[in-house]
């Protein structure tokens, strides 16, 4: 019954009986406080999770860009994005990765690239090291060293990834709540014992009195049986001796 009462009060269902004593009222208060904080915490975390989930991938393709706004410099671009003057801009992928990962943590990058660019290296005509440069660039590309350098220089992240991190309540952060509820439950138990102290005292006294009476009764029975046994031995009549004379 106590488990059913606690379960119903935590989930706000209620039970089909009412509390009467002060201990029950205190325990009910603790249950209502526990349920209120748990529901509010769960609702806040659920709302935060849904908000972050809906905010992902606002712009997913090139057609999402509208209302072209001219920018005069690279710094003007960053300032306009941070001030909310513009919503998005075109940038080189490597530069945008480095900027959003290390400098401007409030900016983000659309994950899918919409256009692949090709870069060339300008050298003097008939340069002696042209062939060596081509071969070494090809070797770097095939060995994956260019990708490693890109990850080291551009994709290294010093800013927290706010799109993937959600603030969640762990069980350790709720220790104070459950400790408070345990304290209220303990106080309710003490209050119940204090209110029933006279009844408990009478019951304990009656129990001890019964045990004492039972013990005395057993002792009296043992003494009575011992006296009966002694009396029986002392009251035994000796059998008469018959002497027969022969003629």
TrEMBL record:
Major localisation: membrane
GO cellular component assignments: membrane
Protein's membrane topology: Multi-pass membrane protein
Highest taxon of source: Eukaryota
Cited Gene3D superfamilies: Periplasmic binding protein-like II
Residue intervals of the Ionotropic glutamate receptor C-terminal domain: 2-182
Protein name (database record): Ionotropic glutamate receptor C-terminal domain-containing protein
């Amino acid at each position: 019954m106590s488990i059913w009462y606690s379960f119903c009060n935590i989930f706000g269902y209620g039970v089909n009986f009412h509390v009467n004593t002060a201990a029950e009222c205190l325990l009910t208060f603790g249950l209502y406080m526990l349920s209120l904080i748990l529901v509010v915490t769960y609702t806040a975390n659920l709302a935060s999770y849904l908000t972050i989930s809906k905010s992902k991938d606002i712009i997913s393709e090139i057609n999402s860009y509208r209302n072209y706004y001219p920018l005069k410099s690279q710094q003007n671009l960053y300032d306009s994005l941070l001030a909310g003057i513009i919503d998005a801009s075109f940038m080189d992928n490597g530069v945008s990765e480095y900027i959003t990962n290390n400098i401007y943590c409030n900016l983000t990058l659309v994950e899918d690239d919409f256009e692949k660019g090709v870069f060339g290296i300008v050298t003097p005509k008939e340069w002696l090291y042209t062939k060596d440069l081509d071969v070494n660039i090809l070797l770097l590309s095939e060995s994956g060293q260019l990708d490693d350098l890109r990850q080291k220089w551009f994709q290294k992240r010093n800013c927290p990834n706010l799109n993937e991190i959600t603030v969640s309540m762990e069980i350790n952060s709720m220790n104070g709540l459950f400790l408070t509820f345990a304290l209220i439950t303990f106080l309710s138990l003490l209050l119940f014992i204090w209110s029933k102290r006279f009844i408990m005292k009478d019951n304990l006294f009656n129990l001890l009195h019964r045990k004492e009476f039972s013990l005395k009764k057993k002792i009296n029975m043992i003494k009575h049986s011992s006296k009966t046994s002694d009396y029986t031995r002392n009251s035994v009549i000796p059998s008469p001796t018959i002497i027969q004379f022969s003629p």
